[in-house]
Each structure stands twice: as C-alpha cells, then as structure tokens.
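Section 5: illustrative case.
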C-alpha cells in the first residue's frame, strides 16, 4: 500500500514538474505579447496656434519592429530603429490644409517627414535617432517638402531626449521642460 501511494505521489510530482515549464513559457509569452507600459510613449503638447487643437491631446507610442527576430531593430548604420505611432484625440479636422507629422533631432538639424495624419488623426513611421522630437504642423498642401512650412500644432520629445543637462536653467530653477514638449 505504501509503495503504491509513493509511486502515485511521485507520478503526480513528475507530471506537474513536466507541465511547469510549459506553464511558465505560456505565462512569459502572455507577458511578452501584452502592450508595453506607458514608459514607451510620450505626450504631444498642443501649441494652440491652430484652430481646433486647443483641447486636443496627442500621444506617440514608441516600439521596436515586431518583424525583428531579436526583439530590437537596427538601421544600416547600427543605430536602433524605432517604430512610431502618432495619435491625436479631440482634434477638429482642419477646414483648410493637412496635419502632417515630422520627426527631427533636438537641434532641428535633421528633419524627416512621417506623413499626413489620416481621418482617424493617426500616422505611423520609423525613426533611427536616439533623441528626437515629433512635430505636427498644419501644411497648406499635402505635397512632399523637406521641412515644414506651416504653423506647429503639436510637439513632443522622446523619453531619451528628455535626459539633458541643466544648461540654461538656474541653479534652483525647477522648470519642467516636458510641459513645453521638449
């Protein structure tokens, strides 16, 4: 009787041990497919320079390309490549012109166009800079241009771009640069 009970107990322990790695990998897979935390997103701040954007809110979600088998994507020069999803809420569609999203380095030396926002006030694109700004402007036409010409409607800075020195700030000044979108 004791031998039968011991064998049954060992069989139960072995079965649960064999299923434990599968359960752990299923849990890990569920964790990996879950949406990323808010840390991988940043806010777009309205400038209130464009009618219909005063009460609007904007968000940029930053992620690595899911096409990469290594969980990160690299550009040809070896820098990280980030996928951006730009979303606006509570924005009225402009009566004239088009809202266009741009990405630029913090010093505005390099500018790339992400594209016009669709009817759902969304656009996606890719950036290969570590520190960058996302700027949304109201352009009079939807033609391709190297730089924006219209007024800036929204602006925001990547999380990595927010890490900067205190140059330009007083020793005891507590100004929140993120409130200005940079």
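Designed sequence:
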């Amino acid at each position: 009787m004791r031998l039968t009970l011991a064998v049954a107990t060992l069989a139960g322990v072995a079965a649960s041990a064999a299923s434990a790695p599968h359960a752990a990998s299923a849990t890990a897979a569920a964790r990996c497919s879950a949406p990323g935390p808010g840390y991988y997103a940043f806010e777009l701040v309205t400038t209130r320079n464009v009618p219909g954007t005063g009460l609007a809110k904007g968000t940029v979600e930053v992620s690595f390309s899911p096409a990469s088998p290594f969980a990160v994507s690299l550009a040809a020069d070896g820098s990280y490549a980030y996928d951006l999803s730009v979303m606006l809420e509570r924005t009225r569609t402009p009566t004239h012109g088009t809202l266009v999203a741009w990405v630029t380095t913090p010093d505005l030396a390099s500018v790339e166009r992400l594209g016009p926002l669709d009817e759902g006030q969304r656009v996606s694109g890719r950036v290969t800079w570590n520190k960058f700004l996302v700027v949304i402007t109201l352009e009079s036409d939807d033609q391709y241009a190297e730089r924006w010409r219209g007024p800036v409607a929204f602006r925001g800075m990547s999380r990595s771009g927010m890490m900067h020195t205190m140059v330009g700030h007083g020793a005891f000044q507590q100004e929140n640069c993120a409130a200005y979108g940079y």
